[in-house]
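A reminder before we start the practical. When you read a complex entry, don't treat the lines as separate problems. The point of joint prediction is that each chain is placed relative to the others, so the output describes one connected object in space. Small molecules and nucleic acid strands, if listed, are placed in the same frame. In the example below there are two entries. Take a minute to note the order of the lines before looking further.
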Amino acid sequence: MTMIFGVPLAVFMGQLLLGLINGAFYALLSLGLAVIFGLLKIVNFAHGAMYMLGAFTTLLGMQYLGINYWAALLLTPVVVGLGGMLIERVLLRRIAHLDHLYGLLLTFGLALIFEGSLINFFGVSGARYPTPEIFQGGFQLGFMFLPKYRAWVLLAAIVVCFATWFIIERTRLGAYLRAGTENPSLMQAFGVNVPLLVTLTYGFGVALAAFAGVLAAPLYPVSPTMGSNLLIVVFAVVVIGGMGSILGAVVTGLAMGLIEGLTKVYYPEAANTVIFLVMILVLLLRPAGLFGKEA
Amino acid sequence: MATTQTLTPSMKRERRANLRRNAFYLALIVIGLVAPFAAYPVFLMKMLCFALFACAFNLLLGYAGLLSFGHAAFLATGGYVTGYLLSSYPTLTPELGILVGTAAAVLLGAVFGALSIRRQGIYFAMVTLALAQLVFFFYIQVPFTGGEDGLHGVPRGHLFGVIDLNNSLAMYYFVFAVFLFGFALIQRTVHSPFGQVLKAIRENEPRAVSLGYNVEAYKLVAFILSAGLAGLAGSTKTIVFQLASLTDAHWHMSGEVILMTLLGGVGTLFGPVLGAGMVVGLQHLLSQSPLGNWVSPILGLIFVVCVLSFRSGIVGEAIKMYRKNFK
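Here is the predicted structure of the whole assembly.
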């Protein structure tokens, strides 16, 4: 059997793939954080909760309303995104003029509310969402076995990341968004409805998190705490990459997933912590982050 | 000529204000001294430990404007080091255990501080959170913390080898003394020239830089001081409860201390004490009521209400109201 530094090729590639999948989630979540941060200048601490709500909406939709996976893939981001817009309209708007740390604190409170309430109804252990019929099984690639669903997650995440990049960098709406990031009051003077843009942006960022939640539902146990643990890692990813660039967020997310996967192969004890260690290294060598322009 | 005649009206006002403040502190100390005869001492000690923790956190947020989302790491470090030492070396006296625990938190604070002050604002909060999570995973894996179980049955021992801390009244007065020491240190720091520079950095960092202050050094010292005091709170708490566990290292704890400070009043000396008392009291009440499982969402709700409607906290709002109506 082929070995890579004393590890069988199949194991090596398998862990690399798992890492890449985790990386896809980091990329989706940090992308949403970056989009929201760009216009609202707040770090959405409720992002993990939104991801978790996405997974729960998918699970409960199937259990009680018989909504299948494909419909959930479309409906869940819309539903959770609308909820996000409501939060922006009712809560975040009131503190938009204040120090942005208050936004962090408010969304932290929201995360506690969502997570804590769901723990009371569903416990912490989590439930499983069945893998959709057509994704049963996988491909035998010769050097490794690639489950179909994992291949799909990777594909879907990359397509969505690319679509987001395209919308922001190549369309008129995206141009408004970028301009709003630079100078919202001038935008408003030009007749652009900036408050609406802010609401839509927050909704879109949240919808990205919910989409990640739907993708995650068949992959990981659906539990109320699934979001918060992931979010702290995503924060580290964001510190590493900086929130200035869309592509930067995606690349950093995928790369950190790969590094995590590699660590699992060679030194599993550090797999949980390696991203934080990379963050420390980046802070020492390049304090503004890999793609960051320090604000 | 008598000296009193040379006092200007503003000096008189200041003198009166000082007198009032001293009377207030004196009253609080008296309340603290008689409290164990009116309430359950362990509960009071818990309040005092968290009050010190919140005051330490407030030193950083309220006076240097730095929001740390990782203060649980220092509380836990103080607790674990003290707990481990006292459990493994029964001859060690508790005050030495606390000293070493606090020193460990100071060291960790120096590392955290040096790394996190390289970024500002929101990034600072995220860096501290990530570093604290690193520490959390570290404490899960290393053997000396007892992993998921934590350290149980840490002996309280004899203070200075003389005073038996198993007596709950003796324990209480010791904790009260530790708290007063921490509070006085913070009070001194805030009103010192060092504290004034910190406030200047909070208000306008570029201007402080242009005035020639080494802003990074000031921030770092404030961070280390805050971390050390948080560690002191953790060490003391471990001796009180004879327990050090992962709960103290979890990010929920970092959130709780933010809430205590915010609720009581960021940037006021007494606010965090009040906030800690309220949060600990509320947790105690809720745990005995049918809402026992809803502590975390209720704390979240208070967070939201606080941020939306009284950002200065209870003490802060009270000061504002007093100034509006009486001055």
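Discuss with your neighbour: The mean pLDDT of chain B is 89. What might explain this?
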